């Protein structure tokens, strides 16, 4: 048993709702690139601990992370979720509806950067932003996330270790370089206090202190 298996054995319990989400993703011919159960549990806990009410998710896929985020907010919480493809957003909505959150989620479809520009025009502000979309745009997503954040908001990024590629100096492909840039930005931006947790493929947690 390795450390991941040990953590999984202790803290991950059978969850029929999330199990059905994974099945729906497979049944629709989509890649199962949802967050891991461990990351999902961290998301729920962080939302609860922070007391976040307005949550932004960049990358919906089939709704797995959306459900985990929504499970953390109180009765007046709301999730805004960005998804490239309309059919993915519809599947995510159907799964959140099954989980009881149909009236507490709004989807924007299309290129995430365009949706972020729209949110900025609408003067939206968020207490919690979760980034889990195309890795090449992580630095751009971070820039928007800071602009769209309330003071004290949390910005969380998934897959920030890229299975060790970010600290392997012999690897310099665009995806890896983008995540390196993202990690360096959250480490050095004076508006943020940040850390990376080496769970699964790495999750970053930043608090906006502007």
Automatic annotation (TrEMBL):
Swiss-Prot/TrEMBL keywords: Methyltransferase, S-adenosyl-L-methionine, Transferase
Keyword check for Methyltransferase: yes
GO molecular function, one term: S-adenosylmethionine-dependent methyltransferase activity
Domain of life: Bacteria
PROSITE patterns membership: SAM_OMT_I
Biological process, per Gene Ontology: methylation
Keyword Methyltransferase: yes
InterPro entries named among the record's database cross-references: Cation-dep_OMT (IPR050362), SAM-dependent_MTases_sf (IPR029063), SAM_O-MeTrfase (IPR002935)
PANTHER family (alphabetical): CAFFEOYL-COA O-METHYLTRANSFERASE 3-RELATED, O-METHYLTRANSFERASE-RELATED
UniProt protein name: Putative O-methyltransferase YrrM
Origin species: Salirhabdus euzebyi
